[in-house]
## 1
Amino acid sequence: MDKNKIFLFDPLKQREYSYESFFDRLNNVESLPLFIYTDDIFEIFVLITASVLYKKNIVLLDNDFKESELGQLGLNDDSLLKRETVVFNKRVDENNFIDSVQESKDWRITLYTSGTTGQPKKITHSLKSISRMVKISDKKKNDVWGFAYNPTHIAGLQVFFQALFNLDTIINLFGPSSGEILSLIDEYNITNISATPTFYRMLVPGNRKFNSIKRITSGGENFNLALFQRMSEIFPNARILNVYASTEAGSLFASDCDTFSIKEEDAENVKIVEGELLIHKSMLGISDSFELEGDWYKTNDMVELLPDRNLQFKFVGRKNEMINVGGYKVNPGEVEEIINNHPGVIVSRVYGRKNSVLGNVLIADVTVGNQGVIEKDLKRYLQEYLQPFKVPRIINLVDAIEVTRTGKLKRV
Amino acid sequence: MPQKIEILRVIINQVLENNSKEKISSLQSSTNLRDEIGLDSFDLAELTIRIEMKFGIDVFESGIVLTVGEILNKLDNGNG
């Protein structure tokens, strides 16, 4: 390996870190914190990797957790400052690194779900469960990863381990603007990106195409044919893969577009009850806060089994996100999908606003690419494709739509 | 500032136009929202939210409202 091979470029700090400097840091660690709580992505990667090598369990915290949230988790400044001295009995380099990492079978990492439904939930994973989908091969040694997830969340960890185990270059794209991201893809010849559909929708490439990208992975939210087609145009050489993963279970299923296949060997561990996907506890990480029904974990994900096809399903929406409008249940994701299909729209968010007449009224916030689109046109367009009760009654044209710490649409 | 009834007419027309219904040219206190203007419950819900966005008052909060005059009353009372 080239000594100067880049391990990480962090555009927020405008800093490149070589693999040499990364290994150097790993070999000179004297103590490790029990909690990772920083916004420095290099530091996060160093500490996670060091905790594996030194076989010390570690807890990942979102850097933007507020004091009150930390309090809910039973943490205070003292606990965050705790460190443990470590002694390392060998030096790692590019040749022994992977073997050294894989020795750490008992290593555990704990992280928190983003807590969109109340208090963050604690989940503990082993190296095996977190790297279930990681593939190591010579062909992947020259991959350059666009890193588009929060590094303290499970999807970010999975991408990190995929890149790290192949000693790939990582370019941090979690944070920069659409324009900066596109420049970085060109500048570093990024070959792989893994991100949420919202991340991809927010890229506005004009008519540019990006030939260096050979693999696009999408996950965390509903992916559809229209986005698939748009991605194929922007990234003409990319294979596009859609992954179903959760903080609770890690990555479980993959698909070429929006249809997921359940592997034969997993078939016994998956079932669908009243439209909801249930996963057997043997597929999960460890947590006190799982609410199991018997041996089954209710994912809260509504799916649709495809008729006449064995073990294939489509993701429909989140059970707890359904909005009751005058007695009708509306899936905001379905409405967003139609809005996003409008040629003038970049991204949209649909939510319910409490209302004394209907219980909830549907509202859409929409960002548009040019100034020509107005509320009335969008409504006409939606009325063509949706039943009347699914058409948002108020459409706000906004400058930006918030995303969560995980890079998903922020639900109101 | 235009009279409340005129602002209300603009808001009602916005709701009508957005939902491909015929706009109205004049509005009286006695005008019935459902029977005369032709607003259905979804339109009324949209109307209440648009009024709320403009005046900060949910005119349907304390019960069904049938006429333009009743909306204006709630707005006047709400404003103290």
## 2
Amino acid sequence: MRDSHKFKIPIGPQHPALKEPEGFSVALRGEKILGVDIRLGYNHRGIEKAAEERTYIQSLYIIERICGICSHSHSTCFAQAVEEIAALEVPKRALYIRTVIGELERVHSHLLWLGVAGHEIGFDTLLMYSWRDREIVMDILALLTGNRVNYGINTYGGVKRDISPEQAQEVLKGVDILEERTKYYIEIATQEVTVIQRLSGVGVLSREDAIRLDTVGPTARASGVARDVRKDDPYSAYSEVPFNVITDDHCDVYGRTVVRLKELMEAYKIIRYVLKNMPEGPIAIKAPRKIPAGEALGRYEAPRGEDVHYVKANGTEKPERVKVRAPTLANLQAVKHMLKDRYLADMPIVIAAIDPCFSCTDRMISIDYSGSDKSEAIKWEALRSYGIEWYRGKGIDFSKLNKEFSRRAIS
Amino acid sequence: MKTIDRVINWSRLKSPWIIHFNTGACNGCDIEIIAALAPRYDLERLGILLKGTPRHADVLVCSGPVTKQTEDRLVRIYEQMPQPKFVVAVGTCACSGGVFQGCYNVKSGINAVIPVSVFIPGCPASPKAILDGVIKLLASLEMKEEKE
Amino acid sequence: MTVCENIRQQLAARFPGIEERVKIPRPRRIFVEAAADEFRKIFEFAINELGFNHLCTITGLDERVNFSLIYHLAKENGVLLNIKISVSHDAPQADSIIGYFPGAEIYERELVDLFGIQIKGLPEGLRYPLADDWPKDEYPLRKDWKPKTAQAQEGK
């Protein structure tokens, strides 16, 4: 950092009164990270408290908006817990529909991640390609649920909308196209030397550490830990659907990329199977407004990993207690571990590789230079540019790939 | 001065530079803002560029209901933008707090903190709605120019 | 015998008297009510001998007469073991479990911020999830705490 690399200085005059809410504090020696502290809470809106003051139906809408990227995950997880307390037997057709939407959500989320990861390492055409392809799944989700994001398909006791045979055909057509595109992305990931070099050996997390640090989702599975709620603790239709849990042994960001790409392929298989074997029947049973006293845990494999909702009911129409543990929170301990003794240039992609909340990219980073009084605050964008330039200096450069891919036309 | 204003307005119309800030949103609107910049909707063909610093931005595109932790930063970003500046509140949360109205850590809308020029409702606001809002903002600037 | 029944039997064998405090409401879900002074032994038994190697989260509850903490543990076969202890409402405190699960730190900080439960053994660190200038002695998830009160006090 003290050598010739330039990056942006902190924005604006420093007012002693106004403290910058740093997202990350990094202790740095030379180019190596000694330690990282992560400050969270920017997104703290007080949802758990709000749920206690709202009816179950109102709470369902607020829970859905914990995260816009995996809203169906949170909504289904919560509905599952409430349905368990109320001993509601959700009709099979509804479970199958929830599964389709859940896998479509996984597809949109992983494609989104692919683009963001590309952006973090300077491979911007990958961002454009993957987000363009992602529009196919956004169209499908809008067709089935009426909205691109925040689908609102769940209700207690089932789902609100059915899938018609015509809609199912549209979904299958879209899935066919996406499968071809995904094969192409897998090719890029496994054959482009620049990609492999950039992502290998970065953000290393051994199998033992992945377990010790309670890692979940693709982050854990890329370290060989076969943890997947869909297999371990099946919900929705997963106990009846054949699919593989994708693991990888690279234990690094490269592994996390491969896992997500292969999970896309599994998702297409699951969607096809579920649509082909959709049972007839109602899509919902009536649920009571007052939920009898009791407690239950909803557990769901969101695109980022295990999502857990604890719900306690007290016989009224408002929940007694709602506790949510989203997957990213579980993976953040592992990030601190992954960054220790690594290069500052790796920080953006290592953090991006656990697939954190998008708003992480607005964070400030404060850097403390060990052994000196110097410290400064930079923006995420500046750190990202620093990382890209640093690797360019080591001969890993995406400018050629970006040019090449802009010229190629994939139909 | 009048002439300079018109030149600046004209270049702003042709190529507004935006900065994006999330004040505690669920990311639903944020991913639709980025989707608006991606190939299908392609805000860039309107000359709109996403910038990393408020010092170069004409328009602040904001999502989220403003949590306590983000309020100061939002104000600082707004203050660092050069005049004239415009604020676009994207999404129902940014307009009024949305489902989070009344929650203890939330301010309930961008305009509780800084003045807003355009409100784009929706949960989330779709890229089409975002495009529509931005075009309306540009059109109102154009009308302003014509008046003067 | 189901997996959960098996676990109940093992718990009963090791901790006499615990059997009636073990509930199995459905497959793969066990709820145990533990006294505060037997918690550590049960916890260690679950981790070392029953094979629970994943801490999902820690839930805090304000049950008005006391506070409760539920430790949600999981293992490969999908079983969730939920161990609940109660602590006094006047001086709520518990011991940290970061020695067993480093990842517990963030869940324990939540208990400190939102309930005001003291966690002994938690190192100095950034608070979560409330802002630095959140008023002292205001614990949002306590049942007697109302959002408007805090807002009025802040003058917002």
## 3
Amino acid sequence: MTDGDRLTRPITREPGKKSGDESGPSAPDIRKPEGGNELLRRMKKIDPDQAKKYRQRSGE
Amino acid sequence: MRPILAGIETEYGLLVEGRGAEDQVDDAMALVRGYPGECHVGWDYRYESPRADLRGFRLARLAQDPEDAKFDAGRTYGEAHEVRADRVLPNGARLYNDHGHPEYSTPECRSIFELANHDCAGQKAILRAAKHYSEQEGLAVMTYKNNTDYHGASYGTHESYLVPRELGFERLFRDVLPMMVARQILVGAGKVGSENSRNVDYQLSQRADFLTEAANAETLYRRPIFNTRDEPHANTQDWIRLHVICGDANMISEATARKAGLIKLAIALAQIQEAPLWRLKDPVRSFQDVSRDQTFQFRIELEQRSWTTAQDVLESYFSAAERLLDLDDELKWVVDSSRSLITDLHHDFSQFSRHVDWAAKKAMLTQFIEEEGSDWSDPHLRAFDLEYHNVDPEEGLHSALEEMEEVVPNPSTAELLACLEGCNETTRGFARGLAISRFNKQLLGVCWRTLTFDVDGSPVEMDLPPDGDYPSHLREAVDVETFISMLRGVQ
């Protein structure tokens, strides 16, 4: 990554200025979904190797 | 502003009990051929031009994935059109076998919500065909609306947007590309791990690992962010079909509508030459950096040692659109709801994850990791990732989340089945669908651009202008001659 200036707005058709704000947004607090009976029931049925066995032709 | 005509084509993953990727072309062909609903058989290929490039040249050939080609060693297939097994449905959609993937292409829609409904209805069409094939063969058949097999093979969900030819490659590329890179934070489908040399636990996009160039006409290999295929499926003098191949297949239907709406915003600003100007230093690297950034900064490097964020890029389109466009209700919804989601991303993730596939999937996987004391290397996670996209509502994990009201609901089954019966909007998809439901016996050829009828033993080809408003009283045509006469009146 470069250490240049942050642009919060696009380049204007005329030369624009740079804001230089380095703070950026903060990472979120990820909360897990509530409930879960139906989800867990289905998850328990899934073969953990399902994705390992899943081979596909390359498409578009 | 006039609504932009759009369509979505989705290649589905296919897993048949006891069969492998080397059998997939045969399986997909048989699955499509067995589609149990009403349909027209065949496709008119005369207007296809996948090797034409928007930049004014034609490729000698399209690149093939050398690894994938090994699956065909020692195998012979029939003629290309027979292998594709084309079916056209009474809603104007196309169902066929594309490189071993059952593919559903929606009819052309003006409304992003109609488009999302038809895209979701495609899941029902694929499921119907899969269940029929399963019963016929006595084998379990699973179909997945996703874009990767986690072993380096990808298959597409492509969007098409009809734009005037005068926009040209340069302007479209400059004005739409930043949106393509940024929108994944709201519409990515999410993926466990990576399929290139840069490891990551989880990322937003299923396609990012497979993008290697900013722009080219390829789709099977060396895939670009901006696809330059010049195949308008309409009068070439007047129209370009902007073919977007960098997006993911969405299980949340609302995300499908937003995905299309965001591109429409960029196109609309390009049309008035007011799209925000961002000069990305390395678009492919930025696409992959955004996809992999689990700190959610979503930094994008710009030319001249500057940088910005995906959030700022999106906001620049929103503010320009509000200021400069006469937005219809749908595009107002795109702007307002997207802004709210960006706020929720950082302040209320449980609300964000109700609307965004990558976030819903990540919340589900995070819960599993916490409850099982596991970590991101657990093979269960990729299995759950795959099963999130299982289109069987009795099996899929997205469907379970929908049932538990953890994600916003998709259209009802009744609404989706109605979508398969016909097209509500009076686009050329409506006319194509009516031709199939009413005059299939007289149809000699069908494609996106034309319908060819047998009238008293002679072929009559009707061009379907893509921007035409097809009258609803086409439904009342009593015979094919009247139908053709009505089509001639479409402007």
